[in-house]
Amino acid sequence: MSGPGGPFWLAPVLVALAMVVAACAPDDIERSGGDGTVARPGATSTSATTGTTASSGTGSPSTGTTNPGRGDLDTARVRLTEVATLEAPTALTARPRSSTMYVAERAGRVRALTVAADGAGSVGERPVLDITDEVSVGAERGLLGLAFSANGARLYVSYTDPDGDSQLVEYAMAGDRLDISSRRPLLTVDQPFSNHNGGAVHLGPDGFLYFGLGDGGSADDPDNRAQDPDELLGKMLRIDPSAPSDGRPYGIPEGNPYAGGGGRPEIFLSGVRNPWRFSFDADTGDLWIADVGQNAIEEIDRLPRASGGGAGANLGWSGYEGSDRFIEDRIPDQATPPVFELSHDDGYCSITGGVVYRGRRIPALEGAYLFGDYCEPRVQAIQVEGGRAVGRVVAERDLGVEVASLVSIDEGAGGEVYLLSLDGPVYRLDPA
Question: What predicted TM-score, i.e. pTM, was given to this entire model?
Answer without folding.
Answer: 0.88
